[in-house]
Amino acid sequence: MTGIVPEVTYHPKLDVLYDFGEIQQNTSIVTLHFPTQHIAYENVQQGDFSNSVQLEQSVCHNGYTKIIGNRVFQNGAFTYAYLKDVQGDLTCALSVWGKTVSIPKMSFVGCPEWPSVAKEWVARKRYQNWPPPPVVTAIQNDGCILVPGSHTSSLNPDMEWKYCFGQAENILFQQATSEHQRYCFMIFKFFCREIFANSEMSALDIAQSTFFFACEVLPQEEWQASPGPCIWYMIRKLETGVKSKLIPNYFIPKNNMIDHCTDLVSVEEKIYQIATQPMLYFNKLQVALNMNPCGSNLIQQVMQEIGNFQNDRTTALQTFIPAQMESARQSIKALHFDVGFDLLNESYQQRLSVITCSDSLSYNMFLVGALSGLPLSSSVWFALYADRKLQGQLSRPLVLDLCSDLKLKSIGEILPSDVAGSYAAALVPESFFVQFDAFCHDYAAFLVVTGTISEALPILYFCHSRYQEFRKTTGDTVSNQPKSTSFCDENMLNIYAGIFALYSRQGQQQIFTELLEDAFALVTRVNKVYAISWLFKVYASTAGEDGVNQLMQRIDKKPDHFNVQDVPLCGKLIYWPQRFLL
């Protein structure tokens, strides 16, 4: 069994929301049924499928996967047989707090190895050393499970499985959180249930992810000394996430848990009500739930602290503003520049409201300090975005302060004026231009993620033209040339993937047929499974079944042996630029 009871954060009235008959809808309690003898691995060698199955994530939303029951290479391409959930709807009776209720029974497949899609969680920089290394190791060694479930946008919902980290969540609550943190979580979970009561989003999943991220950045002593600001911090994080339509899953941050939601107006209105009238909801929580004396005392403390929080200069400067800045850095690193910009701007305004003259800091220097520790590429591209948003409000371009010790060059010096676009005068480090195709790709991807999509396609096409000219003069010696004068076939795959993705976004895939022969020649040279898989998708989109059959006849060379790295690489091409940048 997994869920909130083992997590020691279960309260009967809080989790059932006044009506015990609703437990099946309002809790995460399920019993798990093991339907097969399969164990899932990410890399299973050919012929080992009798006892194990392999995961295939390239065409699934982040956080979901397909399970390959069998794989055969035939006619130039792999065909797959996928494992489905055959158990159907099952329930079992369970006694909870003296009540007998019907609990759904869910089939699952064990995944004993920690999935690569969640490897960032293991290596993540933890400023408060939370969770501690022994807990991280224990969770990693336990792996996870896969449960039937698909993303809303899935094309094959009956074939997809969802990564479930229930056991990891239990360990975090039981071994890594204090009593004070758990009380704060229970109150915050109540607010999430209020906020998402009439929406399609999972209040529990969102509450847990937001809480765990907060534990990583807020000092543990603050949960005891200042529970009110801690809860307020999580509510504000939730508000920012809903406004930007980005709430990442704690274990798989690439899995945006609300990207499928089309109407968030009612959710924003509810958050606004709570943010502007928090005392009304705290009173509702206290009266309606009739919590034990310790809980009631905590609520009284929280209510008082929220009223005083804006005047608490030390707590704001030393704890909550740095925590919000760290959230901004993570957003910028993931190329969510709009979210990072809003968080940094809000942090600076909060800082201005509590500082004295001795703490004064210009906006330029604040931003430079906030970007400290980020990769140079993330910082520079964000600086270009921030300069455009602020439109001269800074004392000088941010990139000059970030790269004061580097030689800079304008984009217009590398690309023709009719290609460089609106950022032609922008300065970037000269080292960005060493690999021309990589720069063109990154610049085009930057334009796409910042909403300047119309300027991306000319850049990708210009790189394609230069590449074809280069091949005519160098033939098959491309890979032996110095980087400053050569093109890389793997980089060019991303260029063509970008062109196809932009046409697909506009419903104009047919235009890409003019580049099919060039793309075919490139994929033939690369001769990797991930490249061929992408090309089959392109042919299927532009020429239908006849095109796929034609491509099968043309591929006369079997690709290299299937490698686990082919799966994410294929996904990066298909879902350009989202997965490439993340």
Keywords:
globular; alpha+beta; disordered N terminus; single chain
Describe the structure.
The strands form 3 sheets. Strands 2, 3, 4, 5, 8, 9 and 10 form a 7-stranded mixed sheet that branches. Strands 1-7-6 form a 3-stranded mixed sheet, with no helix packed on it. Strands 11-12 form a two-stranded antiparallel sheet. It is of the alpha+beta class and 582 residues long. Helices cover 52% and strands 11% of the residues. The chain is built from 25 helices and 12 strands. The two termini are 33 Å apart. Mean pLDDT is 77; it is low at 1-8, 10-36, 46-50, 73-78, 86-97, 291-296 and 477-485. Among the domains are: 1-176, no CATH class; 406-581, no CATH class.
Secondary structure topology:
Layout: H1 12-16, H2 23-26, E1 31-33, E2 39-41, E3 52-56, E4 64-74, E5 77-82, E6 90-96, E7 99-107, E8 109-111, H3 119-123, H4 133-142, E9 144-148, E10 160-164, H5 166-176, H6 179-195, H7 203-217, H8 220-225, H9 227-244, H10 265-276, H11 278-289, H12 293-308, H13 313-333, H14 337-354, H15 363-370, H16 376-390, H17 398-402, E11 408-410, H18 417-420, E12 427-429, H19 436-449, H20 456-474, H21 489-505, H22 516-526, H23 529-554, H24 566-574, H25 578-581
Parallel strand pairs: 1-7, 2-3
Antiparallel strand pairs: 3-4, 4-5, 4-10, 6-7, 8-9, 9-10, 11-12
